[in-house]
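Field: COMPLEX_INPUT
Field: COMPONENT_COUNT = two
Field: RESIDUE_TOTAL = 644
Field: MODE = joint
Values follow.
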Amino acid sequence: MPASVPGPPEAKFARIAVVGSGALGIYFGVKLALSGADVRFLMRGDLAAVRKRGSLAVKENGGMAELRPVAAFGTPEEVGEVDLVLVTLKATANRELPRLLKPLLGPRTAILTLQNGIGPDEEIAGHFGPERVLGGLAFIAANRTGPGEVTCLHSPTIVLGEFGCPVAERTRALARQFEAAGVRMRLAESLLEARWRKLVWNIPFNGLSVAAGGVATDRICGDPLLAAEVRALMAEVQRAGAAFGFNIPDEFLRQQFDVTPPMGPYRPSTLVDYLEGREVEVEPIWGEPLRRARAAGVAMPRLSMLYALLKALNETRRQRAG
Amino acid sequence: MPASVPGPPEAKFARIAVVGSGALGIYFGVKLALSGADVRFLMRGDLAAVRKRGSLAVKENGGMAELRPVAAFGTPEEVGEVDLVLVTLKATANRELPRLLKPLLGPRTAILTLQNGIGPDEEIAGHFGPERVLGGLAFIAANRTGPGEVTCLHSPTIVLGEFGCPVAERTRALARQFEAAGVRMRLAESLLEARWRKLVWNIPFNGLSVAAGGVATDRICGDPLLAAEVRALMAEVQRAGAAFGFNIPDEFLRQQFDVTPPMGPYRPSTLVDYLEGREVEVEPIWGEPLRRARAAGVAMPRLSMLYALLKALNETRRQRAG
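Field: COMPLEX_OUTPUT
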C-alpha cells in the first residue's frame, strides 16, 4: 500500500540520465537538476532546438522554473555512466532500450522506469537484471508545449516501488531525493499492484478517448453510455486484480472516476500521441493486462474489444501514413 | 424457419411506391417494374438527376437492366395511393415516415420494410397499424454507383415475414411477385427471429468496420484479434436470441463468418454511410438489440462497448461537421 515517506532529504543518486525527454522526462529531470543533481538528458528530435535555446523550462502553478545550462546529448556514450537512469521513453520504443541504456550503467546503477502499464519492469529486468529495476507510476497531467518546454496542469505524485520485492532502503532514498526536488511521493510495497491500480484509470480513459474518435475526458464522463463503459472497464480491472491477490476496493474505483470530471477537457497521453500521429502504447496498457488476466482465467470482454480496436486503429493509421 | 416459395407468379401488388431510393430501393424497384408492376419512386437528392437521365439502371452479373421511363416524384402526394409501399429509407430518417407514408395508403395498402435491425416493424406498426406491416431482410451486396445507378455484387435473397404473426397468403403472394421479378425469396415464420439471425452478421461486421477506423470486411477477417471479436459478438447475439426462444445454432454462426472472406474487401452499408458523412443507423442494429437483451437479463458486454463507441463516433462527427 502507498504510504508517506519519512526522513530527511539526501542525494544518493548524484548523476542521473533521463532517457526519453518528452513531457515526463523534462519535468522530473528539471526538478531533480534544480535540487542539485547532475542530470543529463538524452534527446533525439529536440536536441538541436534545446541546445540552441540553452535551457529547459517547466511551467507550473502560474510560474516557470528554468534549467540553464542543460546537459543535453544525442548519444548514450556521451552521457556516460550514471547512478540512476530515469526511463521516460514511450514503451513503443522499448526495443531500443538495450542500445540506449548499456553505456549508462555502472556496477550499481539503478534504473527507474516511469512507463505506464504492465510489462516495462520485466522487460528492463530481462535485459539488465532485476536487482537494478525500480518502477514508478507518475500521476501527472503535463504536456510538452514547445521544444524543451513543459506545462504541468496538476503537480504530480509518483508511486514508487521495487521490481518484484518490497520497498528497500534504496527506494526510500530515491523517494527522499524526489521529495527534496518538490515531487510528492508514495511508496508501494507491491509495484505490480500499484500498476494494476493505475490501470483502473488508464484502461478506460486513455482507451475510450481514442476509440470514441478522439475525445477528451470531459466528453467521456458526460456521455452516459461511455461513462457506463468506463465503470464497467474499471470493474473488469478490479476482477483481474483480485485474481492476482490485489484488493482494489469499489471506493477506489469510484474515486478514480470522480477525480476526472474536475480535470475538464483533459487529453490523456494516449490521445495526444494518437492525434499527433505517433504510435499508441497499446501493449502495456491494454494487451499485456488482457493476456495476463486471460492466463489467470479472468474474462475481460470489454477490454478485449477495446484492445482489438485500438490495435487496429494504430495499424490502420500506419498503413494510411505509409 | 426460411422455406422455399411454391406456386406460380401473380401480381397482387400492381401499384408499388418505393420510399427511399438508395441502392436497395432502386434495385428492387427496377426489378419489380421490369416484371410488370407500376412502380413509383419517391426521391429527394437524386430527383433532378434521375429526371434528366430519364432512366434507372441496375448493373449485375456483367449486364445492365434499365428502366425507362421512370415514375420519379418529389412528394408522396404526387405518388398517391398504392397497393404496396416498399420502405428502403435509412432508419435514421424514420421520424419522417408518418408524413411520407400517409398519402400512399389506401384501406388495404401493405407496407414492406427492408430496413435492418430491430425496431422498424414496430415503429411502422405503431403509426399505421400492425396488420399492414411485413418485414424483409435483404441479403444483398449492392452499392449506388451514380445517380439512378446501382451496381450489385451478389444477387440478393430476401427473407420475408409478417409482423407479429406467421406467414399468410399475402406473404406468399408478395414472395411470388418478387420471385417473378428475379429475386430469390425465403419465407420466415418468425420475422423477429429472422431479424436476430441477420444481426449475427451485421452487429460485428458493420460495427467493427466503422469502429476499427474504417476497414473493409477482409481486413476484419484477416486480423486475428478482430476476427475473435467477431466470433465473440456472434456468440452474444446467439445467447440473446436464445433468451427470446430463437435457436441459432453454432453452425449458423460459423457459416455467417465463413461466407465473409470470399466477399473480399466488402464495405458494409454502415461503413459506406460513415465514410460518406451520413448518420449511421446505430439504434436498430446495436442500441435496440442491446436494450432488449438487457431487459431479458442477458449481458452483452462487447455489444455494449461497441454501441457506446459507434454512438459517440456518430456524435463526434456531427459536432465537427456542425
